[in-house]
Amino acid sequence: MSIGFKERYTDEFDDRKYLVYADDRLPHTPCDASVVCDRPIQAADTTPRPASGQAGLKHDQGKPRWDLLPIEIIGKIVDVMTFGAKKYDDNNWKNVDNGAERYYAAAMRHLAAWRRGERADAESGLHPLAHALCGIMFAFWLEEHKSDER
């Protein structure tokens, strides 16, 4: 039997708060009787609920906005990383000696190529800015994870 609850409130019992539901469809109780949940809670759920037919609520204020990241650009960075993994090895970039400096230099070379008007790297055929972003990302990761590398 499906039980539909028509109201929700808290009640104190044994010095603890319990979530209490009132239901008029329980066969063994009058319409104003209450059913007590089996676990104590701190307070009733007071989360605002949208009225029927209104847009739903989502409490995500203050959380990172991944939806702002331009996914098509991330895809181009992944293409560069895939090219690099085939050329060298998976995650090889993490083990390059003096990596932060070398990836800085590589990023600058790719930025300069882009400024000269290049729109495809001669070796990979991929956009030089995607290569530059990879180099910057690698240098940043190395700075965050290998502080002695600089």
Entry keywords:
single chain; about 150 residues; alpha+beta; 2 domains; three-stranded antiparallel beta sheet; 3 helices; disordered N terminus
| SS element count, helices | 3
Instruction: Evaluate the radius of gyration.
Output: 29 Å
Number of strands: 3
In terms of quaternary structure, the protein is single chain
Coarse shape: elongated
Layout: helices, strands, pairs:
Blueprint: E1 7-13, E2 16-22, E3 34-40, H1 71-87, H2 99-115, H3 128-145
Antiparallel strand pairs: 1-2, 2-3
Helix pairs in contact: 1-3, 2-3
Report on the structure:
The protein contains 3 helices and 3 strands. The protein has about 150 residues and is of the alpha+beta class. The chain has 2 domains: about 5-40, no CATH class; about 65-145. Strands 1-2-3 form a 3-stranded antiparallel beta sheet, with no helix packed on it. A hairpin with a 2-residue loop joins strand 1 (about 5-15) and strand 2. Residues about 1-10, about 15-20 and about 25-35 have low confidence and may be disordered.
In short:
By secondary structure, the protein is an alpha+beta fold.
